[in-house]
Amino acid sequence: MPGKAQPRGVLLTWFGMPGLYAGAAYNRRMGTQSRWDGLILGPTLATLDADAGYGLVEDGAMGWKDGVLAYVGSRDDLPGDVDGLADEIIETDALATPGLVDCHTHVVFAGDRAAEFELRLQGASYEQIARAGGGILSTVRAVREAGEDELLRQSEPRVAALLRDGVTTLEIKSGYGLDFDGERKMLRVARALGERFGIEVRATYLAAHALPPEFANDADGYIDAAIGWLPRLHAEGLVDAVDAFCEGIGFSPAQTRRMFEAARALGLPVKLHADQLSDLGGAALAAGFDGLSADHIEYTSEDGVRAMAAHGTVAVLLPGAFHVLRETRLPPLDLLREHHVPMAVATDCNPGTSPLLSLRQAMQLACTHFRLTPEEALRGATVNAAKALGLHDRGVLRAGMRADFVLWNAVRPAELCYWLGGGLAQGVFAGGRRIA
Ligand code: DI6
Ligand code: FE
To answer: For 245-279, b where at least 16 C-beta lie within 10 A, e where not — what string?
Structure first.
């Protein structure tokens, strides 16, 4: 993509202004009904609206009404005089992409695990710390102690940070309560965060994350209990999908299967923390339930990849955890490409293995550690991430899709994966409303 010659950074001066022009004559001509709520003029669009390539449109335009994109294309092809087209017009030379979709997070938690980070730097492993009662269980203690308001208060700044760097749809897992009240509290906070920030939050039930102390040595008994809580939480509208941690330090494939059967009985889709530290056949297990995604998958075999391809299960790559744990085993990237398994990228934002507050940064890590191309990383954080959540109304810029988009202070899409840190997003819009 050729760079643009114009200076950047003029965008902010336009935000928050009332419509530049809302003349009565235009109202009459277009009819008030058909005027768009907003129109952005001049950005470079990376629509991702094709099987390959960024779908670039130079000097583009994007109009929306009632939260849905009404026009995406070249400025020259706009239907009619721009002044009459929309109530609010923003002129910019920013780069516009679909809003980012963070399809795997544990962003609701209390406290932090910085002390554990220091222990790991002194040589302790994640598994050793977990087996000694630290790790996930130390966050469980903090979450159980926190009231619902306190949990919300502590989680808010993390969500705000994700939004500021371009996230417009967010998945949030439970899994630090590990009893009925604790799991319910986390899921309620997840829903409250969606309302608080005006974004869609997909809430995932991850009670099968770790074994709580009251069920020590009785993992099957705990799975029975967690299966029992699910219909009640689902009836309260708190669950969109079901996940588990299928791992030596988590739950066995047989226990995971039982949890998935409970999900299927309620019509809930499943996804899985699969093959992160060892190959237990987790990816194939998730695919066998037509899982939305298999996540981590560093140790997934070719059979697992084949099963994912056959069932349309998305591969969710989590380079933040790989980076923080200083892992060396790469996910089977060439096999995923060969078998055309869609790859998504997510933050896995959590206090233990991935205290990562920027999905764009996760894209950067996916390029440096996993050698994704910047285009794969951007697809991974938009269209493929939406697929990993079972959402088909977002992830590309196209008329008819939700008006979720980001205006970036960047000339070319590769910059999104190139800059480490900093704030590139100038404006973040969800359903046509500015959220950051
Ligand atoms: N895998 C992960 O990366 C997170 N959960 C999981 O099953 C880590 C959660 C934590 O350490 O708190
Ligand atoms: Fe995770």
So the answer is: bbbebbbbbebbbbbbebbeeeebbbbbbbbbbeb
Read off the pLDDT of residues 228-260 as tens digits, 9 standing for 90 and up: 999 999 999 999 999 999 999 999 999 999 999
Determine the Cα–Cα distance for residues 271 and 245; give it in Å rounded to an integer. 10
Region for residue 360 given its phi and psi (left: phi exceeds 0; alpha: psi -120 to 50; beta: otherwise): alpha
pLDDT tens-digit map of 189-226: 999 999 999 999 999 999 999 999 999 999 999 999 99
Regarding pTM above 0.90, the answer is yes
- Residues within 6 Å of ligand 1 by CB: 106, 135-136, 139, 209, 245, 273, 276, 321, 348, 350-353
* Residue from 353, 354, 356, 365 whose mutation best tests the ligand 1 pocket (most atoms within 8 A of CB): 353
SS3 322: helix
Residues 209, 79: Cα–Cα separation, whole Å: 52
